[in-house]
Amino acid sequence: MNTLDGFRFDWVARCLHWGMAILLLAMVGWGFYAARLNFYDPLYHRALSWHRSLGVLLFGILLLRIVWRLLHRPAPLPDHMPAWERHAAHWVQWALYLCMVLLPVTGYAISTADGRGVDVFGWWELPAWLPPDKGRETWMGTTHWIVSILFCLSVIMHVTAALKHHFVDRDAILRRMW
Ligand code: HEM
Going from the N-terminus, what domains does the chain have, and what CATH number goes with each? Predict the structure, then answer.
């Protein structure tokens, strides 16, 4: 019998999971790189402009993912999982969702601090709904950085747990998302 029967995530959830995982990790690396470029570096504005555009796009995909997740509840965790591991998995998943929301929101708050909207791939402009405030750029920049670090830590815990289930416990947790 296939141990994944009735236990696997549907293909939409799997595409959203792996597609977003790749794009979010690229965004973290790209963000750290772009933020450390010199203002006069020819790449500075282009790198940040792509970072902002992709971030807005990811936020849209995140909203779709949240709707999909609310409409399609995942199969329960296997019975052999101890309670502490269930709690840990639950909290890390919440931390991941919280960071995925806070990163674009704080990024938007930094980018609109001068009163200008966010140009998205040159296709359209996301208006600046918040009032201009130059000081916001600094403290929201720090918040964006802190959330990025928390996001990386949550991803490390999440990946470590998935690998432990696959190679040590040898259960179907990783395969059901694959
Ligand atoms: C969606 C996921 C996102 C991730 C994972 C992400 C990640 C990062 C990271 C790691 C940095 C470097 C932080 C630092 O070293 O100070 C950064 C910088 C930055 N991000 Fe994002 N970001 C995201 C979304 C956005 C969005 C949607 C915007 C704007 C609409 C944005 C605007 C910025 C700006 C302007 C900086 C430079 C901040 C500075 O120079 O202090 N980010 N981002």
Answer: 11-169 (1.20.950)
Could you tell me the pLDDT band of residue 8, with boundaries at 50, 70 and 90?
confident
Encode pLDDT of 147-162 as tens digits.
Answer: 999 999 999 999 999 9
C-alpha 39/C-alpha 28 separation (Å) is: 19
* Residue 107 in contact with ligand 1 by CB distance below 6 A: yes
**Is any ligand 1 atom within 6 A of the Cβ of residue 136?**
no
The DSSP annotation for 39-65 comes to: TTSTTHHHHHHHHHHHHHHHHHHHHHH
What SS3 class is residue 125?
A: strand
Q: Provide the CA 55 distance to its chain's centre, in angstroms.
A: 9
pTM of the model: 0.92
Q: Does 106 sit in the ligand 1 pocket, CB within 6 Å?
A: no
How does the average pLDDT of the chain come out, rounded?
94
